[in-house]
Protein backbone atom coordinates (compact mmCIF):
# COMPACT_ATOMS: atom_id res chain seq x y z
CA UNK A 1 0.00 0.00 0.00
CA UNK A 2 1.26 3.46 -0.89
CA UNK A 3 2.05 5.76 2.02
CA UNK A 4 -0.35 8.46 3.20
CA UNK A 5 1.77 11.21 1.59
CA UNK A 6 2.94 9.34 -1.51
CA UNK A 7 1.44 11.66 -4.12
CA UNK A 8 2.78 14.88 -2.65
CA UNK A 9 6.23 13.31 -2.29
CA UNK A 10 6.32 13.20 -6.10
CA UNK A 11 6.27 17.01 -6.28
CA UNK A 12 9.46 18.67 -7.53
CA UNK A 13 9.63 22.45 -7.98
CA UNK A 14 12.48 23.87 -10.04
CA UNK A 15 14.82 21.15 -8.86
CA UNK A 16 13.72 21.33 -5.21
CA UNK A 17 12.28 17.98 -4.16
CA UNK A 18 9.46 17.56 -1.66
CA UNK A 19 10.78 16.85 1.84
CA UNK A 20 8.05 15.16 3.86
CA UNK A 21 10.35 14.55 6.83
CA UNK A 22 10.98 18.28 7.10
CA UNK A 23 7.26 18.95 7.01
CA UNK A 24 6.59 16.36 9.70
CA UNK A 25 9.17 18.03 11.94
CA UNK A 26 7.56 21.46 11.51
CA UNK A 27 5.20 23.32 13.85
CA UNK A 28 2.60 25.81 12.59
CA UNK A 29 0.73 28.23 14.86
CA UNK A 30 -2.72 29.33 13.69
CA UNK A 31 -4.34 32.33 15.39
CA UNK A 32 -8.10 32.30 14.88
CA UNK A 33 -10.15 29.17 14.24
CA UNK A 34 -12.93 30.69 12.19
CA UNK A 35 -13.58 29.84 8.54
CA UNK A 36 -10.03 30.57 7.36
CA UNK A 37 -8.42 28.92 10.36
CA UNK A 38 -10.49 25.76 9.93
CA UNK A 39 -9.62 25.43 6.25
CA UNK A 40 -5.90 26.13 6.68
CA UNK A 41 -5.67 23.76 9.65
CA UNK A 42 -7.41 21.04 7.68
CA UNK A 43 -5.06 21.51 4.73
CA UNK A 44 -1.92 21.38 6.86
CA UNK A 45 -3.07 18.45 8.97
CA UNK A 46 -3.85 16.35 5.90
CA UNK A 47 -0.51 17.23 4.28
CA UNK A 48 1.34 15.96 7.34
CA UNK A 49 2.64 19.03 9.15
CA UNK A 50 3.93 17.48 12.37
CA UNK A 51 2.31 19.82 14.88
CA UNK A 52 -0.36 22.51 14.93
CA UNK A 53 -0.80 25.08 17.68
CA UNK A 54 -4.30 26.58 17.45
CA UNK A 55 -5.50 29.64 19.39
CA UNK A 56 -9.02 31.07 19.63
CA UNK A 57 -11.15 32.68 22.35
CA UNK A 58 -14.56 32.03 20.80
CA UNK A 59 -17.23 29.33 20.96
CA UNK A 60 -19.09 27.62 18.13
CA UNK A 61 -22.32 29.31 16.98
CA UNK A 62 -25.01 28.10 14.60
CA UNK A 63 -24.01 30.69 11.96
CA UNK A 64 -20.49 29.19 11.89
CA UNK A 65 -21.65 25.85 10.51
CA UNK A 66 -22.21 27.07 6.94
CA UNK A 67 -18.52 27.76 6.38
CA UNK A 68 -16.41 26.43 9.28
CA UNK A 69 -16.05 22.80 8.30
CA UNK A 70 -14.46 21.51 11.50
CA UNK A 71 -17.63 22.06 13.56
CA UNK A 72 -20.91 20.14 13.87
CA UNK A 73 -24.30 20.88 15.44
CA UNK A 74 -23.29 19.12 18.64
CA UNK A 75 -20.32 21.52 18.98
CA UNK A 76 -22.51 24.62 19.38
CA UNK A 77 -21.56 26.36 22.61
CA UNK A 78 -18.22 24.57 22.90
CA UNK A 79 -14.86 26.36 22.56
CA UNK A 80 -13.80 26.25 18.92
CA UNK A 81 -10.33 24.98 19.74
CA UNK A 82 -11.77 21.98 21.61
CA UNK A 83 -13.95 20.87 18.70
CA UNK A 84 -11.24 21.68 16.14
CA UNK A 85 -8.60 19.65 17.98
CA UNK A 86 -10.88 16.62 18.18
CA UNK A 87 -11.84 16.67 14.52
CA UNK A 88 -8.33 17.47 13.24
CA UNK A 89 -6.91 14.55 15.21
CA UNK A 90 -9.54 12.27 13.71
CA UNK A 91 -8.50 13.38 10.21
CA UNK A 92 -4.86 12.54 10.83
CA UNK A 93 -3.97 10.82 14.13
CA UNK A 94 -0.26 11.08 13.27
CA UNK A 95 -0.29 14.87 13.81
CA UNK A 96 -0.12 16.58 17.20
CA UNK A 97 -2.57 19.41 17.93
CA UNK A 98 -1.98 21.80 20.83
CA UNK A 99 -4.85 24.16 21.63
CA UNK A 100 -5.36 27.36 23.64
CA UNK A 101 -8.77 28.80 24.48
CA UNK A 102 -7.65 32.38 25.11
CA UNK A 103 -6.78 35.75 23.53
CA UNK A 104 -3.55 35.71 21.54
CA UNK A 105 -2.12 38.47 23.75
CA UNK A 106 -2.49 36.21 26.81
CA UNK A 107 -0.50 33.32 25.35
CA UNK A 108 3.02 32.86 26.73
CA UNK A 109 5.81 33.92 24.39
CA UNK A 110 7.26 30.43 24.90
CA UNK A 111 4.31 29.01 22.97
CA UNK A 112 5.11 31.27 20.04
CA UNK A 113 8.77 30.26 20.17
CA UNK A 114 7.80 26.62 19.50
CA UNK A 115 6.31 27.46 16.10
CA UNK A 116 8.25 27.64 12.84
CA UNK A 117 5.65 29.91 11.23
CA UNK A 118 2.56 31.89 12.24
CA UNK A 119 -0.72 31.94 10.31
CA UNK A 120 -3.25 34.68 11.05
CA UNK A 121 -6.92 34.02 10.43
CA UNK A 122 -8.01 36.91 12.61
CA UNK A 123 -10.80 39.37 11.90
CA UNK A 124 -9.36 42.51 13.48
CA UNK A 125 -6.54 44.96 12.88
CA UNK A 126 -5.22 45.03 16.45
CA UNK A 127 -4.76 41.26 16.58
CA UNK A 128 -2.83 41.27 13.32
CA UNK A 129 -0.55 44.03 14.62
CA UNK A 130 0.18 42.05 17.77
CA UNK A 131 0.95 38.82 15.93
CA UNK A 132 3.15 40.71 13.48
CA UNK A 133 5.11 42.23 16.37
CA UNK A 134 5.71 38.78 17.87
CA UNK A 135 6.78 37.44 14.47
CA UNK A 136 9.32 40.25 14.02
CA UNK A 137 10.51 39.87 17.61
CA UNK A 138 11.13 36.14 17.19
CA UNK A 139 12.10 36.38 13.51
CA UNK A 140 9.35 33.94 12.47
CA UNK A 141 7.58 33.97 9.09
CA UNK A 142 4.03 35.28 9.32
CA UNK A 143 1.24 34.74 6.78
CA UNK A 144 -1.89 36.84 7.19
CA UNK A 145 -5.19 36.24 5.40
CA UNK A 146 -8.64 37.79 5.34
CA UNK A 147 -11.89 37.71 3.36
CA UNK A 148 -14.90 39.93 2.70
CA UNK A 149 -17.66 38.22 0.74
CA UNK A 150 -16.25 37.38 -2.70
CA UNK A 151 -12.93 39.14 -1.97
CA UNK A 152 -9.84 38.14 -0.05
CA UNK A 153 -6.14 38.63 0.49
CA UNK A 154 -3.06 36.71 1.63
CA UNK A 155 0.08 38.49 2.80
CA UNK A 156 3.42 36.74 3.32
CA UNK A 157 5.79 38.40 5.80
CA UNK A 158 9.37 37.25 6.22
CA UNK A 159 10.86 39.52 8.93
CA UNK A 160 13.72 41.74 7.74
CA UNK A 161 13.28 40.42 4.17
CA UNK A 162 9.77 41.45 3.09
CA UNK A 163 7.67 44.35 4.38
CA UNK A 164 6.14 43.63 7.77
CA UNK A 165 2.59 44.60 8.69
CA UNK A 166 3.76 47.96 10.06
CA UNK A 167 5.55 48.91 6.83
CA UNK A 168 2.20 49.45 5.10
CA UNK A 169 -0.52 49.43 7.79
CA UNK A 170 -4.20 49.73 6.79
CA UNK A 171 -5.48 53.30 6.97
CA UNK A 172 -7.95 53.61 9.81
CA UNK A 173 -10.13 56.70 10.08
CA UNK A 174 -7.91 59.39 11.57
CA UNK A 175 -8.89 62.02 14.09
CA UNK A 176 -7.50 65.53 14.38
CA UNK A 177 -5.71 65.87 17.71
CA UNK A 178 -7.01 69.34 18.46
CA UNK A 179 -10.61 68.17 17.97
CA UNK A 180 -9.97 65.24 20.31
CA UNK A 181 -8.81 67.62 22.99
CA UNK A 182 -12.06 69.57 22.64
CA UNK A 183 -14.33 66.49 22.54
CA UNK A 184 -17.08 66.10 25.09
CA UNK A 185 -19.22 63.08 26.01
CA UNK A 186 -22.10 64.69 24.12
CA UNK A 187 -20.05 64.51 20.88
CA UNK A 188 -19.64 60.75 21.27
CA UNK A 189 -23.28 60.32 22.27
CA UNK A 190 -24.43 62.21 19.16
CA UNK A 191 -22.24 59.98 16.94
CA UNK A 192 -23.62 56.80 18.52
CA UNK A 193 -27.27 57.88 18.24
CA UNK A 194 -27.35 57.02 14.53
CA UNK A 195 -26.82 53.33 15.35
CA UNK A 196 -30.03 53.11 17.39
CA UNK A 197 -28.39 51.31 20.31
CA UNK A 198 -31.07 50.46 22.87
CA UNK A 199 -30.42 51.49 26.46
CA UNK A 200 -27.48 53.76 25.67
CA UNK A 201 -27.84 56.99 27.65
CA UNK A 202 -25.73 60.11 28.00
CA UNK A 203 -24.87 59.05 31.58
CA UNK A 204 -23.41 55.77 30.29
CA UNK A 205 -21.49 57.57 27.55
CA UNK A 206 -20.03 59.90 30.18
CA UNK A 207 -18.78 56.84 32.11
CA UNK A 208 -17.27 55.44 28.90
CA UNK A 209 -15.64 58.79 28.20
CA UNK A 210 -14.06 58.91 31.66
CA UNK A 211 -12.43 55.54 30.97
CA UNK A 212 -10.86 56.63 27.69
CA UNK A 213 -13.54 55.54 25.22
CA UNK A 214 -13.79 58.87 23.40
CA UNK A 215 -14.47 57.82 19.82
CA UNK A 216 -16.18 55.06 17.86
CA UNK A 217 -12.71 53.68 17.13
CA UNK A 218 -12.07 53.22 20.86
CA UNK A 219 -15.29 51.25 21.23
CA UNK A 220 -14.68 49.24 18.08
CA UNK A 221 -11.39 47.81 19.37
CA UNK A 222 -12.26 47.60 23.06
CA UNK A 223 -12.23 44.20 24.74
CA UNK A 224 -15.71 43.08 25.73
CA UNK A 225 -14.73 42.39 29.36
CA UNK A 226 -13.37 45.95 29.68
CA UNK A 227 -16.59 47.49 28.35
CA UNK A 228 -18.68 45.39 30.73
CA UNK A 229 -16.63 46.73 33.68
CA UNK A 230 -17.93 50.26 32.96
CA UNK A 231 -20.86 51.22 35.25
CA UNK A 232 -24.16 50.89 33.44
CA UNK A 233 -22.77 48.72 30.60
CA UNK A 234 -24.22 45.21 30.62
CA UNK A 235 -22.79 42.42 28.49
CA UNK A 236 -25.85 42.66 26.23
CA UNK A 237 -25.33 46.41 25.75
CA UNK A 238 -21.57 46.01 25.16
CA UNK A 239 -22.20 43.39 22.48
CA UNK A 240 -24.82 45.57 20.77
CA UNK A 241 -22.47 48.56 20.76
CA UNK A 242 -19.71 46.61 19.07
CA UNK A 243 -22.01 44.78 16.67
CA UNK A 244 -23.55 48.07 15.53
CA UNK A 245 -20.23 49.94 15.22
CA UNK A 246 -18.33 47.00 13.70
CA UNK A 247 -20.94 44.70 12.16
CA UNK A 248 -20.08 41.16 11.13
CA UNK A 249 -18.47 41.00 7.69
CA UNK A 250 -20.15 39.09 4.86
CA UNK A 251 -18.59 35.66 4.36
CA UNK A 252 -19.05 32.63 2.12
CA UNK A 253 -17.45 29.20 2.25
CA UNK A 254 -16.03 29.22 -1.28
CA UNK A 255 -13.97 32.40 -0.85
CA UNK A 256 -12.65 31.19 2.50
CA UNK A 257 -11.61 27.88 0.93
CA UNK A 258 -9.74 29.65 -1.88
CA UNK A 259 -7.94 32.12 0.41
CA UNK A 260 -7.10 29.45 2.99
CA UNK A 261 -5.76 27.29 0.15
CA UNK A 262 -3.37 30.06 -0.87
CA UNK A 263 -2.41 30.76 2.75
CA UNK A 264 -1.63 27.14 3.60
CA UNK A 265 0.18 26.60 0.30
CA UNK A 266 2.42 29.61 0.96
CA UNK A 267 3.10 28.21 4.44
CA UNK A 268 4.17 24.87 2.94
CA UNK A 269 6.47 26.66 0.50
CA UNK A 270 8.13 28.59 3.30
CA UNK A 271 8.54 25.50 5.49
CA UNK A 272 10.05 23.43 2.67
CA UNK A 273 12.18 26.24 1.27
CA UNK A 274 10.43 26.09 -2.10
CA UNK A 275 10.78 29.06 -4.48
CA UNK A 276 8.46 32.00 -3.83
CA UNK A 277 8.47 35.60 -5.05
CA UNK A 278 5.08 37.15 -4.20
CA UNK A 279 4.42 39.04 -0.96
CA UNK A 280 0.70 39.69 -1.38
CA UNK A 281 -2.24 38.12 -3.19
CA UNK A 282 -5.54 39.92 -3.78
CA UNK A 283 -8.47 37.83 -4.95
CA UNK A 284 -11.62 39.08 -6.68
CA UNK A 285 -14.19 36.30 -6.80
CA UNK A 286 -16.55 38.30 -9.02
CA UNK A 287 -14.11 38.80 -11.88
CA UNK A 288 -12.05 35.73 -11.06
CA UNK A 289 -8.90 37.86 -10.88
CA UNK A 290 -5.88 37.19 -8.69
CA UNK A 291 -3.39 40.04 -8.34
CA UNK A 292 0.13 39.09 -7.21
CA UNK A 293 1.94 42.05 -5.67
CA UNK A 294 5.39 42.82 -4.35
CA UNK A 295 6.36 45.75 -2.16
CA UNK A 296 9.64 47.11 -0.89
CA UNK A 297 10.39 46.91 2.80
CA UNK A 298 10.43 50.37 4.35
CA UNK A 299 13.75 51.41 5.88
CA UNK A 300 11.88 53.81 8.19
CA UNK A 301 9.45 51.19 9.51
CA UNK A 302 9.34 51.60 13.28
CA UNK A 303 9.28 47.83 13.88
CA UNK A 304 11.48 46.11 11.29
CA UNK A 305 13.40 49.13 9.97
CA UNK A 306 15.42 52.00 11.35
CA UNK A 307 12.45 54.16 12.33
CA UNK A 308 11.88 57.82 11.48
CA UNK A 309 13.66 60.83 12.94
CA UNK A 310 13.39 60.67 16.70
CA UNK A 311 11.97 63.31 19.01
CA UNK A 312 14.34 63.92 21.96
CA UNK A 313 12.83 63.34 25.39
CA UNK A 314 14.45 63.61 28.84
CA UNK A 315 13.14 61.13 31.42
CA UNK A 316 13.97 59.92 34.90
CA UNK A 317 15.94 56.69 34.80
CA UNK A 318 13.52 55.17 37.33
CA UNK A 319 10.41 56.16 35.35
CA UNK A 320 7.79 53.53 34.62
CA UNK A 321 6.10 53.00 31.27
CA UNK A 322 2.98 54.59 32.77
CA UNK A 323 4.98 57.72 33.67
CA UNK A 324 6.16 58.01 30.07
CA UNK A 325 2.63 57.53 28.71
CA UNK A 326 1.35 60.36 30.90
CA UNK A 327 4.21 62.63 29.86
CA UNK A 328 3.70 61.97 26.15
CA UNK A 329 -0.07 62.34 26.38
CA UNK A 330 0.18 65.69 28.15
CA UNK A 331 3.13 67.17 26.29
CA UNK A 332 2.36 66.04 22.74
CA UNK A 333 -1.46 65.72 22.86
CA UNK A 334 -1.37 62.08 21.77
CA UNK A 335 -4.42 60.41 23.35
CA UNK A 336 -4.15 56.93 24.87
CA UNK A 337 -0.58 56.20 23.76
CA UNK A 338 0.96 52.72 23.93
CA UNK A 339 4.71 52.35 24.32
CA UNK A 340 6.81 49.81 22.41
CA UNK A 341 10.54 49.18 22.69
CA UNK A 342 11.46 47.85 19.24
CA UNK A 343 9.88 44.37 19.08
CA UNK A 344 8.31 44.49 22.57
CA UNK A 345 4.70 45.36 21.75
CA UNK A 346 3.43 46.98 23.87
CA UNK A 347 5.19 47.41 27.21
CA UNK A 348 3.24 46.90 30.44
CA UNK A 349 2.51 50.08 32.37
CA UNK A 350 4.06 48.88 35.62
CA UNK A 351 7.50 48.16 34.12
CA UNK A 352 10.42 50.50 34.74
CA UNK A 353 12.31 51.48 31.61
CA UNK A 354 15.65 50.30 32.90
CA UNK A 355 14.17 46.93 33.91
CA UNK A 356 13.08 46.40 30.30
CA UNK A 357 16.72 46.74 29.27
CA UNK A 358 16.29 50.10 27.57
CA UNK A 359 19.39 52.30 27.81
CA UNK A 360 19.79 56.07 27.63
CA UNK A 361 19.94 57.22 24.02
CA UNK A 362 17.78 54.39 22.66
CA UNK A 363 14.43 54.81 20.93
CA UNK A 364 10.94 53.94 22.05
CA UNK A 365 7.91 54.00 19.79
CA UNK A 366 4.53 55.53 20.54
CA UNK A 367 1.49 53.78 19.10
CA UNK A 368 -2.02 55.20 19.10
CA UNK A 369 -5.26 54.49 17.28
CA UNK A 370 -5.12 58.11 16.16
CA UNK A 371 -1.71 57.91 14.49
CA UNK A 372 -1.29 56.52 10.99
CA UNK A 373 2.21 55.35 11.94
CA UNK A 374 4.00 55.22 15.32
CA UNK A 375 6.12 58.15 16.47
CA UNK A 376 9.75 57.69 17.50
CA UNK A 377 11.17 59.15 20.72
CA UNK A 378 14.81 59.01 21.83
CA UNK A 379 14.98 58.80 25.60
CA UNK A 380 17.78 60.51 27.49
CA UNK A 381 17.97 59.35 31.11
CA UNK A 382 18.44 61.97 33.82
CA UNK A 383 19.14 61.26 37.48
Topology:
Elements: H1 6-9, E1 12-13, E2 16-17, H2 20-24, E3 27-31, H3 35-47, E4 51-56, H4 80-91, E5 96-101, H5 109-113, E6 117-120, H6 125-138, E7 142-148, E8 151-157, H7 177-182, H8 185-193, H9 202-210, H10 216-221, H11 224-228, H12 235-245, H13 253-272, E9 280-284, E10 289-293, E11 311-316, H14 321-332, E12 338-340, H15 353-356, E13 363-367, E14 375-382
Give a description of the structure.
The model is unreliable at 173-179 (pLDDT under 50). The protein is globular and about 70 Å long. The termini are far apart. It is built from 15 helices and 14 strands. By secondary structure, it is α/β, with parallel strands linked by helices. The longest helix is centred in the C-terminal third of the chain and has 20 residues, at 253-272. It has 3 domains: 6-149 and 250-276, NAD(P)-binding Rossmann-like Domain (Rossmann fold, 3-Layer(aba) Sandwich); 177-245, DNA polymerase, domain 1 (Orthogonal Bundle); 311-382, Structural Genomics Hypothetical 15.5 Kd Protein In mrcA-pckA Intergenic Region, Chain A, CATH 3.10.290. A hairpin with a 4-residue loop joins strand 9 and strand 10 (289-293).
CATH topology of the largest domain: Rossmann fold
| Cα distance spanning the termini | 74 Å
Question: How many independent structural domains?
Answer: 3
CATH class descriptor name of the largest domain = Alpha Beta
Portion of residues within helices: 25-40%
| Strand runs, count | 14
| General form | globular
**Could you name the CATH homologous superfamily of the largest domain?**
NAD(P)-binding Rossmann-like Domain
SS strand fraction: 15-25%
What's the overall average pLDDT, rounded? 87
Number of helices: 15
The poorly predicted ranges are 173-179
Q: Give the radius of gyration.
A: 22 Å
Order of helices and strands: HEEHEHEHEHEHEEHHHHHHHEEEHEHEE
